[in-house]
Amino acid sequence: MKNSANVWNEGMLYAHLMRILFKNKQFITWLMRVSFIILLFLLTSLQLLTAATVHGQRMSDYKVTLKLEKESLLTGLKMIEAQSNFRFYYRKAEIKQITGLDIASGSRTIEDLLTEMLKNTNLSFRQIENNILLEKRHQQADYTVQGRVLGPDQKPVDLVTITVTSIVNPNISSAALADTGGRFSLKVPEQGDYLLKAASPFTDSFTQRITISNNALLQLPDIILSGPTIQLKGVEIKEKKQLISRSLDKLTLNVEGSVYEKGENALRLFNVIPGVYVNGKDITFRGSESVTVYVDNRRILLPGEQLLTYLRSIPSESIKSYELKAVPGAENDAQHAGVIINIVLKSEYRYGLTGNVNTGYWYNGNSNGKGSSFVNYRAGKFNLQGSFNYARVPAFYEDEAKQTINATGVTSQQTEKYKEHYHSLGFNTAVDYKISDKQTVGVSYNMFTNPGDISNITTTGIDYMNKVKANTIDSSFNTTKSTDFRYINQMANAFYRNKLDTLGSKLDVGYSYIYYGLRDPSAIETRFLNSAGAEFHPPDSLFTKTLGTSMIHVANIDLEKHFLHSLILNAGAKYTGSKTDYSMDFRKGLNDKAPLDTSQSNRFLYNENILAFYGTLSKSFKQWDVKIGLRAEQTDYNGRSVTTGETIGRNQWNLFPSAYINRRLTDDHAFTLAYNRSIERPGFRQLNPFITYTSPNTVWEGNPNLLPYYSNNVQLEYLLKNKYSFTAGYQNTANAISTKVTNKGDMIISRDENMNDNSNVFLSMYIPLKITRWWEFNTNTTLRYRTIDVYGNPEVHRSKFTQNIWGTNKFSLPNKYFLEISGNYSSADFHDIYDQFGVGKVDLAIRKNFLKDRLTAIVELQDPFHLYQPGYEVNTPEFTRNVIRRRLDYTRYVGIFITYNFSSGRKQSNKEQVDAAGNEARRRL
Questions:
Q1: In this structure, are 654 and 568 located in the same domain?
Q2: Residue 11 main-chain phi, psi, to 5 deg
């Protein structure tokens, strides 16, 4: 018997913690320099470190933080003893052979940890006061393995012997003879990995590995002995994870081990996350909240179709889970539009080559095609990744608008058709190198561009009619705008990670460099026609040329420190420095040789520096989890118009607190209360004081005087049985940026301004139903009451009650076909400060897997009933404007998408999941 634990009183615990802190002088020096604000925040929380040890607790309630990587049971027991008052008693001979344990870093109860560590052994445990006894199981449950052996003619084989032998302990073995029907049944005494062997004098024998986990019966598929190299597909029965789980600050969708693990892709799985819906190029949460997408904690900053193409290229087989943060914490950048969804990839990479290829074709009135590939190669201490994306996707939309100028009574009908011949390329490469078991360095580079013959054409036709005789055209004009658009978006990143201890503590240091370049020349020509269709005025010609560059440097350092008794400290600092240079030339003609119009041409320089510090503390108690955080950001920016000499500038500090409280009533009931404050800064292009023409009477103006705006968000979620989610929340925003639409005569001018305060109260419900064995139905409903106070003279107060409903039906059909029917409806809402019409949509998809699930084909039919026609109305004292979008490239199509996954070699972990620090700055380009 062995007793290796020490009982710490309050004074000894405090002294031990102080020795840990002062041992690392560099950490203390750095922490003192981070921020006076963070220092105060941490000092107020030191009382948590000196909390008195609680005696007499149950191991089912007491939590510790633990991480094991190929380590022994003895090591795990010592780590538990070091963090608790419990002492273990056992026979050393019974546990010394139990090695190779892998336990993911996290906070768990001692009972849960012991269950996981002993699940494949013949040991059990029980608590006597503060002592835990490990002993052999007195009664071992038998597990049954059943199956049938057939010959090449699909008939039973005579004299077949089946043996099952434990891989860990060859002394555990069982054998049986198949009966005259080829059927066999045998018993094994415990869970674990086994080798199953079938032998017959008339056919070749074979050996295959199987795994027995929790189920008492393992039913194998038929074994067909038909050749010299017979293989039975590996059978593994696992403990099924709950599809949805709730931690303190996020909701997790566990893809691995679920019905969604095979044959899907990252984009389609967004529709499984409670409250999330993919509609064309938009991914929304609860109907109207935007979504920020991460993969392995790295922000994916691709626009529109490029983002969809990238997400489709990630097969569900490589996805571990989705993490949804409806209320991001202080460790995340304060600037977040909406919620964060992080796709966590499996960290098991194989020595050799692993990856997938992906292709697709779809028709929406134009032919569209895409292709992508992803490869991972692991050798020794190196892990290399690469990906490539290509898409040729003609983009288009068609708008119908009707407007009336109240002062003149003139009514006009306008059609605007936009079409873009577009293709894009994306590259990504990354290399990680393990210096040691604890230290990893890595570099990555990605680039997105649209090379080649890229152009778009916008045609605008406007018919003017007198209000009295609305069906008679008095005059009209037609505008053609031809644009040759180029851009390049690059980011290089380097990181260093040091795992400080076995509890999960780590230190990350990173640097990113981002470059964005833009070239956007446009030729605009307008013809003026009278009521007879003849030109009555010489055509107007205008040539504009926009050139822009942005360069951003980002450096970050982040510490995550795990202390005793489930106490975790996160602290860090981040610096972002950006410089942008945009110019726009106006010329009176149709090319860049025409005379320059100096009255409208401009060049604008903008510099911005953001310095941020943050700290969070999280603590787990008996049935409570608490996390508090504070982020401080200093924003210093200045802008200057080279042409006019006009300048703007601002330098200020802002605080962004966050807090989470989770209460677990039972395993089936949990409440989470969350709060945060966030900021939204204007994009760099919004600040450029340029005028962009679509036609002579439709323009957009930049606004260099835009200011950031701030939001507060509080939510209370109830999670029932880790499946059903009910959330009530309140959000408010002050001085928000909206697009204001005004007119000068018949010219319509759009301009972004800080012009309203808004708030909303909402209730959201997510309910998944298993209607039959072959029919699953998931639905989410969000009800909101929204109010907007628009600045002006007089102020305008508006409110709406809105509803958003979506549902997905998933049918499992014979022969491994799957049918999915999904729909979405959003009631009338606000379009910025104006009225948006209600809209709905129905989509269908059929999926089939081939080649042992390595090849997946999906046929999609999007919006076959042409229900999705969004629209809005601007109604002011000066004019009214009603706009309906009749056609849109990405919402209505039929297409087929194919993915093939390949892998070789043995599994090995893992590639570090490190945040590329520059991604938040990159989103504003």
A1: yes
A2: -65, -40
